[in-house]
Structure formats: C-alpha cells, structure tokens
Amino acid sequence: MLYMGVDLGGTGIKAGVVSENGEILSKGSTPTMKERPYQDIIRDIAALCEKVAGQANVTMDEIAAIGVGVPGICDAKTGIIPFCTNLGWHDVPFIAEMHKYLPNRVIVDNDATVAGYAESIAGVSRGTQSSVFITLGTGVGGGIVIGGRPYSGVHGIGSEIGHMIIKMDGEPCTCGNKGCFERYASATAIIREAKRAVEKHPESAILARCGGNSEKINAKIVIDCAKEGDATAKQVFDDYVKALAHGIVSLFNVLDPEVIVLGGGVSMAGEYLLDAVRAAVKPLVFFKTLPYPSIQLARLGADAGIIGAALLGRE
Amino acid sequence: MLYMGVDLGGTGIKAGVVSENGEILSKGSTPTMKERPYQDIIRDIAALCEKVAGQANVTMDEIAAIGVGVPGICDAKTGIIPFCTNLGWHDVPFIAEMHKYLPNRVIVDNDATVAGYAESIAGVSRGTQSSVFITLGTGVGGGIVIGGRPYSGVHGIGSEIGHMIIKMDGEPCTCGNKGCFERYASATAIIREAKRAVEKHPESAILARCGGNSEKINAKIVIDCAKEGDATAKQVFDDYVKALAHGIVSLFNVLDPEVIVLGGGVSMAGEYLLDAVRAAVKPLVFFKTLPYPSIQLARLGADAGIIGAALLGRE
Fold this sequence. Notes:
The structure is a homodimer.
Chain A: E1 2-8, E2 12-19, E3 24-31, H1 38-55, E4 63-70, E5 73-75, E6 80-84, E7 89-93, H2 94-98, E8 105-110, H3 111-122, E9 131-136, E10 140-146, E11 149-151, H4 182-185, H5 187-200, H6 205-209, H7 219-227, H8 231-255, E12 259-263, H9 271-281, E13 294-297, H10 304-311
Parallel strand pairs in A: 1-4, 4-8, 9-12, 12-13
Antiparallel strand pairs in A: 1-2, 2-3, 5-6, 6-7, 9-10, 10-11
C-alpha cells in the first residue's frame, strides 16, 4: 500500500509518496504563497501530489490515501480547518476542496501531531504505542500518540502542549494567557531571555557574536555561546532547560508515555541539550524508584511531516 | 455478568457487588487498620468480598472479576503495588496475596482513576469516551478515561494531575517539586491561604467561625464564608478558582477530553464552585470560537470507588 503525505507550511508545501512503513519513495515541493486564496493553494497541493506520484511511477489510483499535516487545528470528521493562524485560514473546507481535483481519501491533522506520529512509526520512537513529540521552534507544538494512533482530543484542540500553563501569572503568551510552556521552552524564549541578559551583561560573547546588535540574537548563537562557556549564555540556557524539564515532568505526571521526543529548531543543539534536559528532569520525577518515560531527540528531521501525514492513511 | 468492586482507603475498606452497567447490588465495609501487615489487610479484603457476595445471594464463582481501587500506584501487569504512601505499602504483591483466598481474576488501579471511570460509565460523564476526573481533596487526584478505558500511562505513573506544575518555583509540594497543581487546587491549599489571609484580616468571618482558632479552618468554612460575602474568604476562594481554572485549561490544551469532572471534598461546594470555575475557565480557553470540554460535578459520591473498581473487570 502506498500513501501520499503533504506537509503544508507557511512558506512551502512538501509532498511525498510513502510506503506502509514510512519510507519516502519520491518527494517534491512548491511555494505556499500564503497570501493567495485557499482555493489556489489547495489546487497547487493537488497538482504537487500528482507530480510526486509520477516521480514514483505510480498513478493516483495506487495511492490509498492523502494525509495532510496542517499548521493549525483540524476537524478530522468534517475535513474543515477551523483555524490556521499561520496561513490566515478560518473554516476552510479543505477535504471538499481537495476532492475537486482528486478522488482519493483525504485525512487532515495538526503538523506537530503528524510529525510525532512519524517518529513513532519510522523514527526514534519507532515501535512504541505512546509518545509525546515536542517541537521546540518559534513556538512549542505537540504531537501525542496513544495506543499507536495520533491523539488530538475530542474537539481537535488537544496536544497543544505549548499552552500548558507552567507559570501562572508569568510571561504573556500570544494565546492571551500568561505563563504558557511555549513562553519558556521555545526558541523565542531563548532569544527574549538572551536579550534581557545582554542588557545586564554586555560583556557576554552573545553580543560579540551578533556584532553588538541584540536584534540579531538567535537560539543557536545563545546555545553555541553556552557550550563555549560564556556565563551569561549558560545562565539563559540553564533557565531554558529548567523550564523545559518542568513541562516534560508535567507530561510524565499526566500522560506517562513511553517516550518524549524533542524536535524542532532548538533540538538541533543535539546531545548538549539532551544531556542537560535529562539531568534536569531526573530530580523532578515523582516516583524516583519507578521507571519513567525516556527522553530522545527526533530523528526524521524535515521529512517527519511528509511521513507522518502519509501514515495517517493507514487504518 | 457481576463484578466485585473494592475501594481500599486509609481508614476503611468498602466492597460491593456491581452489575454490568454500574448498579450496586450489595455493599459492605470494614476498617483498614492500616498499621497491620498488608497480609492481614488483604485477608480482610477477601473476607469482605465473600461477605458482600453473600448479601447479594451470589457465590464468588458468579463474580467475573474483582477490581480494586488503591490510593497509590499500581502495576496492572504484575499486580504489584509499588507505592501506596497512604498505607505505607511498598512493592506489595497484591494480586498474588488475594489469590491465596480467592481464585477470581483481580485487577488493580489507582483510586482516582477508578472513580473517574465509574463516572464515565454510571455517573455524570456517562456515555463519554474521554474524560478527566479531578478529586479536590487533601491532595488533588486524577482519573483519565481515553477511548472508554481508564488510562494510567505506560509505567502506571500517569494521571497524577495533581503534580502538573502550574507555577514553576511556587509553593513547595510533598512530591519534592514546587508549584504543583495540588498545592493550589486542593482543600489543603484553601486552608493554607485562609490561614495566611486571616493573619492580615483578623476581622474575617472565617476566624469567627473557628472560634478565633485558625487551626480549625477547613475548606467548607472558607467557602461558606465566601458564599456569605466575607471579603477575605471571597479572595481566598477566587484565588483558588483561578488556579483550578489554570490547571483545567492545561488539561484542555493537552488532552481535550469530552468532559472534566470535579469530585472530592471541595466539589461539595456544588453549583457555587462550578459556576465560578466555568466563568474562570472561559476567558482562558485557547480557541475561543471552538467547542471545548464541559465541566461538571461528580455524581456518584462515595460509591464511585466501588463502582469504578468493579467495572475494571469488564473487558
């Protein structure tokens, strides 16, 4: 059985033909040009699907289903996308629109959810039945797998783990609340805290690395400086890891999955981040002598979206 | 099919014969006397099962399974109870010990989990497939139902929602961390905050109600005073509701169940609490125009433990 996976992003659309066990047979991409009407974007998605099918020498008849990862909320039952802030979409009848071009079964789900699902089939959490995938990017996304299937809650608003509140009355969040996990565990949080820190510590290597312009600070610069021993960067990194660990332990205490998978831009810090997070989590674990979820780095990288979306089509 | 449900508590053991759909046919109880060796307690549990079966005019042969709700962590696979702080139990081979007296299949799970399961079968969340039950008592317990079945995570350490961290670096918790949900949403939190408040506001009705002795403050007194318009009590109650709402919204954003059920001692405040919680949750909801989980009061009261434990036996 073959499946089509589509990773719909704010900048680009990627699609690929994927095998039953998550191997990509062909893939391609096209720019989103998100200012356009959704009808134009969806027409391009359908055309891209046909193109990558052709690259794999299969017809669309041979594609069991098309799965689509969307950077927003999906109503899997109706196929309507109520919210996709990134694309400015609101109540877009995605599946109906796709069916104007292609007759295949179409399944939609949140992009972080499908990336987490991909890792659980073909990535680091392969073979597990329950996992939580955390994307550490501009925001913090979540992908929950329970019983071997993606879990997005009853109203499609679950697995928004970036909006667990870990510090009531804390940093204001884009969602309107204060103290969301995202405000402490995203790349954006590292940048915010580094900017604050270099005001007090202009001697920090962070500022030198940015040519003295704190507007150029990014998460990689801060983590690189921390690795190299810069005290200010190390403090920002340690605070970041502490908050990330608190969110992870909350997930332990609620969901207790087999594995927590760290993905997204910040996870590129690799073992340096992973070792620090594991060390920070350990003393926070509730039942110290019982086994608890392992924490791992995502493995599929940029392909996770295509693979996970495609595998939504597996029944 | 008939099932036996056992509710094992620190003070008393309750057991009952329960029908397929959660109706109690007979019930009884015996004191726990928790200082005794676990062997003695489990012998009494087995004897109580036989007694209540007799009251329902059935033999133990007619009981499909014995479910037991335990105030601790359970390893459902091995039947061992690794932790039960309340009883001072550690690695107790519960099922093996029960089988010395009765041949029936025995299933163990956490007491809050089984109470939540009971509500989802025979109580306020009847007919739902996913719910989160929150016991607002001395601590805060959690019972998660997903796909119509109790969910305690992979290592049996999930659904400990009292230990989600809602205020990093906040009030110290018995678990060793700081800022756990339990520290803000338990009856204990109401009492702690009321004691602090009456030091500043000795004119509060709370203190009068306790004969001037703040050691006699309990959650009911504080909530009663709040209802009657005492400003100090109202502030304590409002802060409590705010924290409870923040924890509930975190559960929305992670699990997005059909319903959140409030049980435990504080929930006896009834509609006064429910209305306040619903009002506090509303502005915190992430997707304001989408449906979100409903919040309800538990209905089964003290019988939830027996019913839910019994229904663990249903396959």
